[in-house]
Amino acid sequence: MKIHITNNPQELGQVAGDTAATFIKKAIAANGQSNIILATGTSQFDTLNQLIHEGGIDWSKVVMFHLDEYIGLPVTHAGSFRKYLQERFLSKVGALKQVHLIDGEADPATECIRLGNIIAQLPVDVALVGIGENGHLAFNDPPADFVTEQPYIVVELDEQCRNQQYGEGWFGSMNEVPRQAISMSIKQILKSKNIICSVPDQRKAIAVKNCLELPVDNLHPASILQQHSGCFMYLDTSSASLLSSQLTA
Question: Is the Cβ–Cβ distance between 143 and 219 less than 8 Å?
């Protein structure tokens, strides 16, 4: 893992997005296409904005997956991650070679199998991820499943996770936040050749400290990124504020 600390969230997003673009271009040059995973949420605003404004990416040679989606939430809802990606990414770049969105309104077990069969055939070049306030990676809340080989799984969302989604303004009340989601599994995320983890904001500082300074543990799911040699962790001075000087040097 390589840790980079920038002065503000916008700068963080610019550097993270530029790094992602570099990996995508290299994969296209080497293999004729690039397979990517995108995250959603407020932590990704600036990273995705930078990515879509990068030049030189032939999007017709890019295959896209995403990390998670609520079960039972209509695509028209403000909190839908499919809606997020359509509005903030897909509508702003050229047509991709393939787009594999998680259908949270389909039968969950069937949808996990469908997507799992597709992604199992494609090596992922770069995954864009974040860290939740509870340390989750995708919607793998603590205690996360570090063992399953299934690429996509049905998960229960804990209260801290649901409260974060409400606090970010995606839902009108806590009661509106779904209690289940389909999430890419930890092992599937770790199969990515490169992982770009963007984590701005003071409210993530405790999770960042726990996931980077404590031993790898499924109670701090994103701590598993410590073991990935191709992980690039992008923090701002707020999210990195509780880290020891040894990590921030």
Answer: yes
Task: Read off the tokens for 90.
Answer: 């897909």
Return d(Cα 135, Cα 212) in angstroms, integer.
10
C-alpha–C-alpha distance, residues 9 and 127, integer Å: 19
| Domains (range + CATH), the chain | 2-248 (3.40.50.1360)
Which residues lie below 8 Å from residue 172, measured CB to CB, with a gap of 6+? none
CA distances from 93 to 3, 78, 96, 180, 220 (A): 29, 21, 8, 30, 34
Cα 247 from Cα 235, distance rounded (Å): 12
Supply the pTM of this predicted model.
0.95
Distance, in Å, from the CA atom of 238 to the CA atom of 108, rounded to the nearest integer, reads 37
Write the DSSP string, 115-170. HHHHHTTS--SEEEE---TT--BTTBPSSP-SS---SEEEEEPPHHHHHHHHHTTS
20 touches 56 (CB < 8 A): no
The mean pLDDT value for 78-105 works out to 95
Give the C-alpha separation, 14 to 28, whole Å.
Answer: 21
5-58 pLDDT, tens digit each: 999 888 999 999 999 999 999 999 999 999 999 999 888 999 999 999 998 999
Peptide bond into 200 cis (omega under 30): no
- Of 193, 172, 188, 171, which is closest to residue 41 (Cα–Cα)? 171
3-state secondary structure of 91: helix
Return the percentage of the chain with pLDDT > 70, whole number: 98
Nearest to 133 by CA among 242, 207, 196: 207
- In the sheet where 152-156 sits, what is the strand order? 68-70, 180-184, 152-156
